[in-house]
Automatic annotation (TrEMBL):
Lineage top rank: taxon: Bacteria
Knr4/Smi1-like domain mapped to chain residues: 17-145
Pfam families assigned: SMI1_KNR4 (PF09346)
Gene3D superfamilies in the cross-refs: SMI1/KNR4-like
The protein, known as: SMI1/KNR4 family protein
Length: 261
């Protein structure tokens, strides 16, 4: 019996309900037969953030020595979700004949169709670590093996609800290379935008020029979030998009999030 994995209160990555027409188009475009258990999940909710976000691994990864992390699952849209696989394969020089289920930048979880057209194994790919290895023999095994990894970061987010950051504390967080601390600071600003609009823009612009890929990706995602709720000025968005387009490591975010700019 398959677990219920979806976070119901988070709409990000969630696509309109899956239809037979879109499913047929996806399988025709990708030239594969998608796993029945994957289709069943998407019939409940077409992609989105998931509750059970970790999967055990015998191979150490950039996440940990004993597991990988997967915060969301791609759905199937007219042109997005798993149908963006070919684009990301070219962008990140990934193997052909795979379908990306989750990930961004250097790490991905995918269905491996290199040796089969039906019920493929699930693999993990890390470009920077030059890793490709099997996580599960099929999607059903993979989805039922997901679990919630107990992490100290959960306690930090609980404390974050009551924390009132000073400008000095925010500046200190943004001056570090600690992705977790930067995320907490951005989350605080997202909940406290009033009067901080200019500060938010300047910090996102600075983060987008970080030498660290993960931080640039983080900044691009948050730039999209702030833009969606109308916090960023048109000049600020224009400058951010210009920075993103000039950086070949993150330029794909420009078309993904800011195609009208």
């Amino acid at each position: 019996m398959m677990i219920n994995i979806w976070k119901k209160d988070d709409e990000y990555y969630k696509l309109p309900p899956l239809t037979d027409k879109i499913l047929e188009k996806a399988e025709e475009t990708l030239r594969v037969k998608l796993p029945k258990s994957y289709i069943h999940l998407l019939q409940e909710q077409n992609g989105g953030y998931i509750i059970y976000d970790s999967y055990p691994s015998d191979v150490p990864t950039s996440w940990a020595d004993d597991h990988i992390n997967m915060e969301f699952l791609f759905g199937i849209g007219e042109e997005n979700g798993i149908l963006e696989s070919d684009y990301f394969i070219r962008e990140w020089n990934l193997p052909n004949n795979i379908v990306l289920l989750s990930g961004s930048g250097h790490s991905w979880v995918a269905l491996d169709y290199r040796h089969t057209k039906e019920e493929p194994p699930v693999i993990y790919i890390n470009v920077e670590w030059d890793q490709i290895f099997e996580l599960a023999p099929n999607f059903d095994t993979f989805i039922n093996g997901l679990y919630v990894e107990e992490r100290d970061v959960e306690d930090l987010y609980f404390e974050q609800d009551e924390r009132q950051w000073t400008i000095d504390e925010l500046n200190n967080a943004f001056s570090t290379s600690k992705e977790q601390e930067i995320t907490l600071a951005l989350d605080y600003l997202f909940e406290n935008t009033k009067g901080n609009e200019h500060f938010i823009e300047q910090k996102l612009i600075a983060l987008l020029q970080s030498p660290i890929l993960d931080i640039k990706q983080l900044a691009a995602n948050y730039a999209n979030h702030f833009h969606e709720v109308g916090i960023l000025s048109s000049n600020g968005v224009e400058e951010m998009v210009s920075i993103i387009r000039k950086d070949n490591e993150i330029e794909y975010y420009a078309d993904m999030y800011f195609s009208n700019n």
